[in-house]
């Protein structure tokens, strides 16, 4: 670390702590009011940087969720009728405020999650972009189709489904929450948000900024708490019509079961074990850059990380040797330092999980070609496993850390078998200069999203989501409105069609 980056890191840390000072007591936002839990229970919010307590949050349960859901139900009656133009203006105002507080949001996110300032500095900009994108679609959200039939005019329209539950994970909480909340509000839904208990700070800021922008009370409600209590209560509440959930696949199964008695509509963005497939004819330098970036950025705590590297055997040794060298130069350290690539992982329990895979790799006979260390606290170095087989746990299970498993393949058919040979199917990355193969392979991949000769570049209109155990449903553009809205068909008779006379 140069003395310049040390002083920048210190300045960032001091600013983050100052911003966090006014968030030391996190309360729920219910019906426009900030409240503690009826039980008085709270939980500690800990920064993964040094495991110290930075805040206490009210621990919500069924009682708080019930009040939040009722508030959302009441607010829905007016919010659904607010003209689209007015909703649009409001959502743009929220985006303005997010942009105005970009530095604060970034630094709070670093403090709360351990993600590095290098990557978090764009978190607020991306969140604002989510609000702007859906703000501009408020006016077309209700659009439907005209389906003329003999003697009839059929037309469809879309209407907001009602109050929805949004349950989010800890990895990039601010950006992810806006990705769900912005389309819900644009559609005319009201929201009960249950943020992750390991990183609740910026959810509170988002709620504050929404109020400041003029969002009517009860339209966005935020209930803090644990998954098994607050989260569960959201999924079980009768007034909540749908659940947008981002998190682990196993949690998705629980939510589906919990929501079954009230027939919840669900939208799941779950785990991944995404392959990056590199053919020998690819631009290997760019493939290497992308492979390194897509696993070691965002602490590897990223659902779309390229955590399985499949490389054609003729270039496997050279490619993985170069990758190991690059991994050794990826910097793990103070997340407030702009020169740091990997910050501390979210929680000691998560570090334990990630490090257990280093032990598993050795037990299963793979080679730890780079990293595999936990030098201090929650810090884990950029790790590469080589000589792996697809049936090993390190190739099959989502590790959700800066850990990459490399496997060689001999031909296209084997590459496809390996790429698809996991329970997950979120994203896939494909590197080849052969155009026909690129399309053929992309069509064969069991994944919701495929990037060809590209890292994960998002275009907000495109469908985002997974297949298999990686999810149900798609987000983005109009796809989001399919979830947050009901399609209604109106059939109008244009003349006098026959009506059978009974009892005449
Ligand atoms: P998690 O499933 O443990 O928790 C996510 C949220 O669900 C938290 O708010 C938690 O409190 C809540 N929750 C837990 N149990 C619940 C229950 N029984 N009922 C209702 N809510 C409950 O996930 P995590 O550890 O916070 O996040 C990491 C996971 O998220 C990884 O698997 C990652 O791949 C996934 N993820 C997916 C995407 C995507 O778009 N596909 C994006 C980011 C993260």
Automatic annotation (TrEMBL):
Q: Name one GO molecular function term.
A: 5-carboxymethyl-2-hydroxymuconic-semialdehyde dehydrogenase activity
PROSITE patterns linked to this entry: ALDEHYDE_DEHYDR_GLU
Query: Does the record bear NAD in its keywords?
Result: yes
| Gene Ontology BP terms | 4-hydroxyphenylacetate catabolic process
Identify the domain of life.
Answer: Bacteria
The cross-references to InterPro entries, in alphabetical order and at most eight, read:
Ald_DH/histidinol_DH, Ald_DH_C, Ald_DH_CS_GLU, Ald_DH_N, Aldehyde_DH_dom, DH_HpaE
Catalytic site positions = 269
> Aldehyde dehydrogenase domain: which residues?
34-490
Note the Pfam families from the entry: Aldedh
Query: Keywords for this entry?
Result: NAD, Oxidoreductase
Q: Does the keyword Oxidoreductase apply?
A: yes
The UniProt similarity line reads:
Belongs to the aldehyde dehydrogenase family.
Q: What is this protein called?
A: 5-carboxymethyl-2-hydroxymuconate semialdehyde dehydrogenase
Organism, by scientific name, is: Truepera radiovictrix (strain DSM 17093 / CIP 108686 / LMG 22925 / RQ-24)
